[in-house]
Design goal:
The complex is a heterodimer. Chain A is about 25% helix and about 25% strand. Chain A is an alpha+beta fold. Chain A has one domain: Ubiquitin-like (UB roll) (Roll). In chain A, a hairpin with a 2-residue loop joins strand 3 and strand 4. The model of chain A has no long low-confidence stretch (mean pLDDT about 95). By secondary structure, chain B is of the alpha+beta class. Helix content of chain B is about 35%, strand content about 30%. In chain B, the strands form two sheets. Chain B has a four-stranded mixed beta sheet, with helices on both faces. A four-stranded antiparallel beta sheet of chain B has the order 5-3-7-8, with no helix packed on it. In chain B, helix 3 crosses helix 4. Chain B starts with a strand and ends with a helix. In chain B, about 35% of the residues are buried. The model of chain B has no long low-confidence stretch (mean pLDDT about 90). The chains are: A alpha+beta, B alpha+beta.
Chain lengths: ~80, ~160
């Protein structure tokens, strides 16, 4: 299982802030997980359409090629706007 | 710890004083306070209905603190600085409210100014905070600004 988190406008678009998922076979990177979730359709397409979507694995910002494995905490969110 | 993420307001004067309390080697403390502006929210309504009435700050608990600490560590690697204090508020804030505080102490002003600006620039692009503006016409998530990426990018070229 992996823990997946969503924040800010993406969280609102999806109507959920987190879920647990058993990684399907062949889903081994952040980018492939994003595509997998976006393919659920409807609101989930926000994962494909959010401009400059960012991701973190175990609370470190990463690119789409970053590897993921069972036990990881993976987060998707729009570009940050603090300060 | 030098990094705090909190709903409560902060006392900038007390934080600045703490950076040199009990020591005589500090020659400079540079600080920055960010405030919530009653701006017109981009893309929402018209006239007064679009003015920002409040702002809600969301963050990623756990990662936020790690990201801020990593930024402070990087600043310490670039400049000879003594103390660093970073406070970022979360939750609902009103125009005029303090939202972020960064202060750096050093022997001389150059290091303190530079490190303070560096920490703010990196915080803007690397720390997982998101602002939502509330107006009479509804709420809107603030878009990331390209100018913030440029501001952070300047520090890459000079590395």
């Amino acid at each position: 299982m992996v823990k997946i988190l969503f924040f800010a406008g993406l969280r609102e678009a999806l109507g959920t802030g987190s879920e647990s998922l058993a990684l399907p076979a062949g889903i081994g990177t952040v980018g492939s997980l994003r595509d997998h979730l976006a393919a659920r359709g409807e609101a989930w397409s926000a994962l494909a359409t959010t401009k400059n979507l960012r991701a973190a694995v175990n609370q470190q910002m990463v690119g789409p090629d970053a590897a993921i494995k069972a036990g990881d905490e993976i987060a998707f969110f729009p570009p940050v706007t603090g300060g | 710890m030098s990094v705090s993420v909190q709903e409560a307001d902060f006392d900038a004067g007390a934080e600045i004083a703490a950076l040199s309390a009990g020591r005589d080697d500090v020659g400079a403390v540079a600080s920055f306070v960010g405030l919530v502006r009653a701006d017109k929210a981009a893309g929402v309504g018209a006239g007064d209905t679009a003015m920002v009435q409040a702002m809600t700050l969301e963050h990623y608990p756990g990662m936020t603190e790690k990201a801020l600490e990593a930024i402070v560590t990087e600043a310490r690697g670039r400049w000879e600085i003594y103390g660093v204090r970073v406070i970022h508020r979360v939750g609902k804030l009103l125009p005029g409210d303090r939202i972020v505080f960064v202060a750096v102490s050093s022997t001389h002003r150059g290091e303190a100014f530079a490190a303070c600006e560096f920490i703010m620039d990196y915080l803007k692009t690397r720390a997982p905070f998101w602002k939502k503006e509330d107006t009479a016409a509804g709420g809107r998530w603030v878009d990331a600004r390209e100018s913030d990426d440029h501001a952070a990018g300047r520090w890459e070229a000079g590395k």
